[in-house]
Design goal:
The structure holds 2 protein chains of 2 kinds.
Chain A (H helix, E strand, L loop, with lengths): L1 E7 L6 H13 L3 E5 L8 E5 L5 E5 L7 E8 L3 H10 L7 E6 L5
Antiparallel strand pairs in A: 1-5, 1-6, 2-5, 3-4
Chain B lengths: L1 H11 L1 H15 L2 H22 L5 H19 L1 H17 L14 H8 L6 H11 L5 H7 L4 H17 L12 H21 L5 H21 L4 H14 L25 H14 L7 H14 L8 H14 L3 H15 L1 H10 L11 H12 L3 H14 L3 H13 L2
Helix pairs in contact in B: 2-3, 2-4, 2-6, 3-4, 7-10, 8-9, 10-11, 10-12, 11-12, 12-13, 12-14, 13-14, 14-15, 15-16, 16-17, 17-18, 18-19, 19-20
The chains are: A alpha+beta, B mainly alpha.
């Protein structure tokens, strides 16, 4: 089953910890996807109004917002929370575990 | 009338229901399917057994019938079957099946205990889930137990079940390294059922009494499944020693009777005799846990002839241990009362006054009630009356209110 690990907060962990974690996820053969957005000051928001007009704005520059994500494929929630707990972002931050919706 | 007969038969099948359900969940990996065919098998038994007689092995009969129904259901619904098959493959990848699990009827309930008390489920629902799926109560009975409308309880159970299947909370016993983190949640769920049974002896008190009995039954099952876990033993001992006092806890007018005023000849000796050796086991072989320590405190009360001859120094010591394990102002309060018994009311009152303004005691009647008792013993009667009144304003249950009103009236 696929789970999305949403890493919130600027969290602790040295660069090496994140690299080690990324390698561990890869080597376990559970990695589906994983990325980290660049600095929140580079964020841009887009919304389309009822009349089809596009509104593009700067931000939000929210440091507590998503700071990275993984999609992993593991047997169950316990396995997913184990991987979430190993993530450096869980120290001083929060990792939210969400099953990926299945549209069969 | 049929409803009544049905209800009593439900009760007979309670124990079987939990066992059967757990075995089916293990087999099919799906709580919904297991629940459905468990009910069907029990219904079939209700029709057949009165006519054909009870089979030699009722458990095996129920299991065979339930399994057959499940297979039928999966044959009809191929998409569902495919999904479950996939689930099973993944579950086996995570935890290989126990060898010999296909032989007799292995007890799979321990897995289900850990699922029902899983940390990913809301704490308030864990007791209800445990009652529903392990104690085998119907949703109506669980709702009655928690004094909530049936519809509300049904919604909560459905939501929890959806989380279990949707987020795929596994049916598995945590590995030894995980156990210290996970077992307390299971114990808390069972103990929450027990304390719920004691929370309000008012209103339909017989039903609430049942709740304490159900918690005891669950505690016994858990103790059989995990005989070496000392905190499981401690929890069972604590519940036995507490429940042993049930007949003496209320007076003729239904008022609460404090421990020191209880008629100890009305304590349930058999239950105490069952509980006491468990306390020893809970405290032997390593540092004690919070349930073991609380059971030890209960045991010191059980062995004392009356309040005056109780080993208060030892009780104070045990509260000190408990405080280091699970610090809480409620523990501090109980310790202060024990110190009052050991060193006199003024010593206890000084400690209680130091807890004034503690946010976690705000709104609890036990704090002003304990102060009132000590003030009364010190002869500071107007202050005692004021504290009793304050406690009366906060007490929820009728027996507690009766007790406090009587205390207030007794003041000269």
């Amino acid at each position: 089953m696929k789970y999305l690990l949403l890493i919130h907060g600027s969290g602790g962990g040295a660069v090496q910890d994140w690299l080690d974690y990324a390698r561990a996820v890869r080597e376990a053969g559970i990695l589906v996807a994983g990325e980290a957005p660049a600095d929140p000051s580079l964020a841009t928001s887009v919304t389309v109004g009822a009349g089809g007009e596009r509104v593009v704005t700067d931000g939000p520059e929210d440091r507590e917002a998503l700071s990275g994500f993984y999609v992993i494929d593991v047997p169950d929630l316990d396995a997913a929370t184990d991987w979430a707990a190993r993530c450096p972002g869980a120290r001083g931050g929060t990792v939210v575990v969400r099953p990926v919706a299945e549209y069969a | 009338m049929t409803g009544d007969v049905g209800a009593s038969v439900e009760a007979i099948f309670r124990e079987e229901r939990g066992r059967l359900l757990a075995a089916l969940v293990r087999r099919f990996g799906d709580l919904d399917l297991a629940e459905e065919v468990t009910s069907e098998a029990i219904e079939a038994a209700l029709l057949k057994w009165p006519v054909d007689g009870v089979p030699a092995s009722p458990g095996a009969w129920l299991m065979t019938t339930a399994r057959r129904r499940a297979v039928d259901r999966l044959r009809r619904d191929k998409a569902y079957a495919a999904r479950l098959a996939l689930l099973q493959v993944e579950a086996d990848r995570a935890a290989p099946a126990d060898p010999g699990a296909d032989g007799g009827l292995p007890d799979e309930r321990l897995r289900l205990f850990f699922t029902c008390a899983h940390p990913a489920l809301p704490e308030v629902d864990r007791g209800a889930l445990t009652l529903r799926y392990l104690a085998g109560l119907t949703t109506v009975e669980v709702a009655r137990a928690y004094l909530v409308p049936v519809e509300t309880m049904a919604k909560r159970l459905v939501r929890a079940k959806k989380k279990i299947s949707g987020a795929r909370i596994p049916f598995r016993v945590p590995e030894p390294r995980e156990l210290p983190g996970r077992l307390p949640g299971v114990l808390r769920a069972v103990y929450s059922i027990f304390t719920e049974g004691y929370a309000a002896s008012a209103g339909p008190d017989l039903l609430r009494h049942d709740l304490a009995e159900e918690a005891l039954r669950l505690g016994r099952i858990l103790h059989r499944l995990l005989p070496a876990e000392r905190e499981v033993t401690g929890l069972l001992a604590l519940m036995l020693l507490t429940h042993a006092r049930r007949a003496a806890r209320t007076g003729p007018e239904g008022e609460l009777v404090l421990l020191e005023d209880q008629d100890r000849s009305r304590w349930d000796r058999a239950m105490i005799d069952e509980g006491e050796p468990l306390v020893v086991r809970a405290l032997t072989g390593g540092p004690p846990g919070p349930y073991g320590v609380q059971a030890a405190i209960a045991a010191l009360h059980s062995t004392a002839a009356d309040a005056a001859s109780t080993d208060w120094p030892q009780i104070v010591h045990l509260y000190d241990v408990l405080r280091s394990l699970t610090p809480s102002p409620v523990v501090d309060l109980n310790r202060a009362v024990a110190i009052a018994m050991r060193d006199g009311p003024q010593a206890g009152l000084t400690l209680l006054d130091a807890l004034a303004g503690e946010p976690r005691l705000r709104g609890l009647h036990v704090y002003p009630a304990a102060r009132a008792e000590l003030l009364r013993r010190l002869g500071r009667l107007p202050e005692a009356a004021e504290a009793f009144r304050e406690a009366l304003g906060l007490a929820g249950s009728e027996p507690e209110r009766r007790h406090l009103r009587a205390r207030l009236d007794e003041l000269p």
